[in-house]
Automatic annotation (TrEMBL), chain A:
Subunit field text: The complex is composed of two ATP-binding proteins (PotA), two transmembrane proteins (PotB and PotC) and a solute-binding protein (PotD).
SMART domains: AAA (SM00382)
Protein name: Spermidine/putrescine import ATP-binding protein PotA
Listed EC numbers: 7.6.2.11
Catalytic activity: ATP + H2O + polyamine-[polyamine-binding protein]Side 1 = ADP + phosphate + polyamineSide 2 + [polyamine-binding protein]Side 1
ABC transporter domain span: 6-236
Enzyme class (EC, first level): translocase
Primary role: Part of the ABC transporter complex PotABCD involved in spermidine/putrescine import. Responsible for energy coupling to the transport system.
One MF term in the entry's GO annotations: ATP binding
Taxonomic lineage from the root: Bacteria, Pseudomonadati, Pseudomonadota, Alphaproteobacteria, Rhodospirillales
Family: Belongs to the ABC transporter superfamily. Spermidine/putrescine importer (TC 3.A.1.11.1) family.
From TrEMBL, chain B:
Topology term for the membrane: Multi-pass membrane protein
Protein name per its UniProtKB record: ABC transporter permease subunit
Localization, UniProt: Cell membrane
Chain ranges passing through the membrane: 33-54, 61-79, 85-102, 114-138, 158-184, 220-241, 262-283, 309-329, 341-367, 397-421, 433-456, 462-488, 509-531, 566-585
Amino acid sequence: MSSSSLSVQGLAKRYGDFVALAPTDLVVADGEFLTLLGPSGSGKTTLLSLLAGLVPPDEGSVRIGSQDVTYAPPYERDIGVVFQNYALFPHMTIEENIAFPLKMRKVSAADAKRRAREALEMVHLPHIAGRYPRELSGGQQQRVALARCMVYKPSIILMDEPLGALDKKLREHMQLEIKRLHREMGTTIVYVTHDQEEAMTMSDRICLMNAGRIEQLGTPADLYFRPRTLFVADFLGESNILPADLRTRVGDEVEVGVGSSGVSGRALANGHDLPPGSSVRVMVRPQNLAVARHGASAMGVPAVGVQGRVSEVMVTGSLTKVYMEPLDRNLPPLVAAFPTRNEADAVRIDDVLTLSWSGRDAVVIADTAAPAAGTA
Amino acid sequence: MNGQSLTMTDTAGAKRHSPPPAWRKPVLMGAPLVLLLVAFLVFPVGQLLALSVYNGQGFTLAPYAQLFASSLYATVLWITLKISLATTLVAVVAAYPIAYLISVAKGPAKSRLIFWVLLSFWTSFLVRAFAWVVILGRNGVINSTLMSLGIIDRPLDLLYGFGAVLVGMVHAMLPLAVMTMLAVMENIDRTLPRAASTLGARPGTAFWTVYFPLSLPGVAASAIMVFVSAIGFFIVPALLGGRKETMITQLIIDQVQQTLNWGLAGAISVLLLTVVLIVFVLYDRVFGFASLTGESAVVRNRDTAMRRLGGRVLAALGSASDALIGIVPRRHPIAGRAERPLALTAFVWFLLVLISLPAFLMIPLSFGKGGLAWPPSGFTLQWYEQLLQSPIWMQALWRSIVVAFGTGLLAMAIGVPAAFLMVRGQMRGKGAMLAFILSPIVVPRMIIAVGMFYVFAQMGLVGTILGLVIGHTVVAVPYVVMTMMAVLRNYDTRLDMAAQSLGARPLAALRHVTFPILGAGMLSSFLFAFATSFDELTISLFSSGGLSATLPKQFWDEVTLQVSPVIAAVSTGLLLFVAALIWVADRMRRRSLAS
Ligand SMILES: Nc1ncnc2c1ncn2[C@@H]1O[C@H](COP(=O)(O)OP(=O)(O)OP(=O)(O)O)[C@@H](O)[C@H]1O
Ligand SMILES: [Mg+2]
């Protein structure tokens, strides 16, 4: 097993009666880019701190490679941490801050200075070496924190929202830098972000957390197209979630009846093995909904489907979003998105549209609110 | 790389399979302080109290019989309470506007105000008390001024009375009252009264119904600190009081130094301690001990009828002051200005001049030929020459400096880890631990001093530097812990974590990150301990022995036996020393802020 993989088993942390992290298993492969995503307070920073050894766990173990480091102090772990609040030392200049880890590793002063300068150039801040942290903007501090962590090339880097304070352009630049570092040095990175797009574009895998536990762990596509729970479907991107009854199984898909009118449709079973008659949810992403004027057909799919009255049309550049109130009162409001077209055939408010989807683009989510199969 | 790390791994993994025992660190951090207090506070005080019921052969209640046989002790206790309560009341009322002004002032104005409060705070109690002897004496400042103006033709008897004691006591306690109150006031959210005024409250109402209730825990903390210090104080009543103003501490001194009646001294101590404990229990019920350290400035809301009444009184006060403000034509239409009215500033400066002036009167006297009579006449350096040539004074000075340094270092070594523990540690019984750490402040100094003397005598520590350092550390260490706790609360612990994650071992993290950032706070803790020891008289009075006096002890012997103008020279020296100390501390603080 390689020395820069991370694995945790049954790791848990409580503050008094409050469970900040429920017993959790997680393996991060050597050289993997794993993103922790989740709402505020879901335990991302807690998990990161446990990995870094900044707080002791209540239960469970942490391994780096095959070495048990559960109770090893942070300075013995060769893990770099970029802190959520930067944690720059206020009494040191930027250069001293960045040279600090090198100094702790007994790198000669001249060498440390040179490498600190290089790191500053990498984050595009060569001119601020002599300043103190409080003389920098939030975004500059964040970049210094990144430089301080990268300068000593740790084999594992934990980053807690490292780009949160940057504007879009800088953020994209820094994303590239981090990816480059990841690629070139083979660093294992555990990354925390609130930005879904960032999580989707950068990660090998995403670990979605909720209320102190892992809700789902998988590739970005897994989470986006094959969410296991309503929470995941709802958290990542826009989605349409339709109540439905399961009818029959067709290969890896199922046929369902949607809403009270029982409009038929298809969806991926996604590993759920539920008996016919179970009530489930079906999730379809807005861009996977085919829209047709009532009675017409679109994209070769016959125009049978859920009907809705347009309540709002929003053109967001390349995409047009259409919000609809389904005629079936038991269905929630829906949203469809498609490439913005010429005005001539544009959709207008109060038009009635028919929505349909391919079975490959929809997915079944077990309805947690419904009674378990078999007891019904 | 893989094979190697694998073999390394298993041994290291096995070595560290169990968590380090969670109790070890807190014990290491807290034990020295606990041991010190048990050995040199609990044990000595316990011994002294035990002496009141154990006469060497067996159990006895004779000392108590003696205590209650004559009305002397009850009378003295009553006088002691009367003086302490009056002192508390006046000092707290006078301290409030000063602390308020400091808390709302900014920049250099604030630094100036704090400088003058600190100067009084750290100017020796002895110097300040002695200054009043000079001011109020028959040939003193007031009498000679009034006579030269022809207002009176015979000197008034200003000295040796309740008034003189009260003035001296208030003067001694006022800076303490301001500092304690300020700790709470600085934490009051400045936007709250402003928010109240945007909600329609006039300035007076906003002050009395929003700011004042929030500042009450500070008032309470300051009142109890002043009361407890006052009840254990003896310098002022001894120097300024007459027969009728004897305080209970003086009786204890008499029993120990003159009649050697340890049993009675113990019994009086029990009496005094009981009174203090009752006061503290009442305080804890109403405010909670935590408010003493500024932990949480929340008044427990129990008694709702009282609260409603209090609310009405405050609202009435608010509208009364609004009416008053309304009469005066408004000069500043800007609401923000109302926070610092001119009249308040003038009044506060008047108070500050008043509390600083007495010590400053020593300067002209120290250069005068006419002794300690006012006004000073002529110019001479003879008192300074006498002082510098006196081996007794010089040795006392040297001893005091050594003891103060030792105390500062020992108190820091013991108090800083304890403060870390109290702020960062997660353990049960923190409240009890804090109360224990603060107990040297709670127990009247006189009781500690007498008990310590008794124990030191058995251990052969009387008259030694070590004994004095230990004794002073016991009374200085709570201040170190409190100052460091305040400093640590503002310190972001994530910086330590960052340092450790960057490869710094705990000691390196302390050296490169924690201590440099906490430097200014640590320096002021050290100076606090240093100054406490440098001005300590009660413990030194007994434990310094006959021949190895510290500076305050020498000062005390001098003013009680023979009064010479050399005292004025010493006082001047002390004043300048303290001013220099504050200046240096302030410079260091600024340097550390600037870097
Ligand atoms: N030292 C502590 N004492 C008590 N509770 C804590 C402590 N640290 C964290 N918590 C609690 O644990 C929970 C998880 O906190 P954590 O910092 O891991 O959240 P997070 O997912 O990083 O949130 P965010 O996205 O806002 O940074 C929160 O509810 C928090 O209040
Ligand atoms: Mg966080």
